[in-house]
Amino acid sequence: MTQLLNLPGVIVEDSLERESTIILSVRATNKTAVCPRCDRKSHRLHQNKRHLVKDLPISNRAVILSVNRRQFKCEFCRKPFSEI
Ligand SMILES: [Zn+2]
User: Fold this and answer.
1) pLDDT at 61
2) What is the domain extent for residue 25?
3) Domain tally for the chain?
């Protein structure tokens, strides 16, 4: 499934198949993110937010990505930010 998506740095954690729909839970593999304000790396996870992306039909089935978009907390400016 991970190879099917062919997205570098993204892994499929879980997949759920309905009749004509495939729901894939994906997340980024990197453990750090760079604060957009001060350009510093943070590995302090603030929270997880899931959002659904309706995307790319694969062999006539609708594929919905449930993306775990993590929020980090910058250790420098102490503000939360989302990874891209
Ligand atoms: Zn910062």
Assistant:
1) 85
2) 2-82
3) 1
